[in-house]
Amino acid sequence: MKLKTPIILLSVICSAAQSSELDNLIDSSGAILQQLQTGTMLVGAAIDYGHTGQGMTSGNVSELGHISDSQLQAYNMALTGFQYSYQPYGDAQTTLEQAADEQLGLMSEAVDVFTEVTTELMVAAQVNEAAVQAVDSPKDQEALQTFVAENDLSITQESVDTYNTALDDVEAYGNTAAAYLAVSQSKEATSFFETGAEGNNTRVDQAVLSYDANNQWVMMKWQGTNNATAVYLNGASYSGLDVYVDDTTVLQAGLESDYYHHSLAAQGYDCYMNQSGCDHEY
Predict the structure, then answer these.
(1) In terms of CB atoms within 10 Å, which end of the chain has fewer, N or C?
(2) Least confident stretch, 45-54, 196-205, 208-217
(3) Angle of the 138-150 helix axis to the 122-133 helix axis, nearest 10
(4) What is the CB neighbour count within 10 angstroms for residue 183?
């Protein structure tokens, strides 16, 4: 795998994230400490009052400083969790998978926009089917001419812009999600990122994660430094991830997809809108 640690000119600032194991350890040990402080204050008061006779308790105040069974159990469980589960530099695989989920969510929104705007562009499919059917029939051509004259079949620039933008967004979000997932599935790549976090004394879940289509890499910019670590996706070295495919492969995958199979583009206007003239039964 071709792995690279480039230098980034701008320092990276992002929000810190505590792991649940560390949170549990902080909370449970803090609870024990609070009881120790309370207990110590009670002992100090007892010593002073016992030697001076200037005060005394009701006899139940010591319970305020007791350490409960639940506090003891929480503390010991937090210790065990921190010892065996906590990763001080973060979990690169989990970080990448979570980032991929976010990109898939954005892609889903873009797909919804794309699907909606294609309904506005259906008039082109309707016109095309009618025009093809009328090729050998002047009568049908005359009927189509009348239909065009009597109906608004135009397409707006706004619809085209929305369509083009949605298509670009679907590709961008889909590629980014695929990049993150591909890297997350490589032990070599995730270990490389975690080593980068260790070298910069930070965590992978505090890094700024990005996919760069031009450089064909996934990069983590390390918090509070000018450094970054990147993993290439183009098979640039003998053991590298190589996830790019050519246009023909992409289109073939799309042709075989459920989304395309149930779309206007695949079914045609009459089948899609009226369930008529279909090659399959509804």
Answers:
(1) C
(2) 45-54
(3) 160
(4) 31
Question: What are the distances in angstroms from CA 34 to CA 22, 40, 71?
Answer: 18, 10, 11
Q: Report pLDDT digits (tens) over 210-252.
A: 999 999 999 999 988 999 999 999 988 544 799 999 999 999 9
How far is residue 42's CA from residue 66's CA, in Å, rounded to a whole number?
A: 11
Can you list the alpha helix ranges (DSSP code H) found in 86-137? 92-120, 122-133
**CA distances from residue 9 to 177, 204, 222 in whole angstroms, order as listed:** 26, 19, 12
The closest alpha carbon to 205, from 97, 86, 82, 90, belongs to 90
**Strand pairing category for 208-212 and 228-232:** unpaired
Q: Which residues of 234-254 are buried (b: 16+ CB within 10 A; e: fewer)?
A: eeeeeebbeeeeeeeeeeeee
User: Which residues, at least 6 apart from 28, have a Cβ–Cβ distance to it below 8 Å?
Assistant: 71, 74, 75, 77, 78
- Tokens linked to 162: 């929305």
Q: Which of 125, 43, 270 is nearest to 282 (CA)?
A: 270
Distances (CA, A) of 97 to 117, 169, 275: 30, 20, 40
* Kind plus residue range of the DSSP H or E element containing 210: strand 208-212
Token pair of 11 as six digits: 């320092």
Rounded to 5 degrees, φ, ψ at 16 are -80, 155
* Residue 78 contacts residue 29 (beta carbons within 8 Å): yes
Cβ neighbours around 92 below 10 Å, total: 30
With CA atoms as reference, report the closest residue to 189 among 243, 121, 150: 243
Which residue, among 29, 193, 162, has the nearest Cα to 99 in the 3D structure?
193
CA angle 183, 186, 188 (to 5 degrees): 110
Amino acid at 202: T
- pTM exceeds cut of 0.85: no
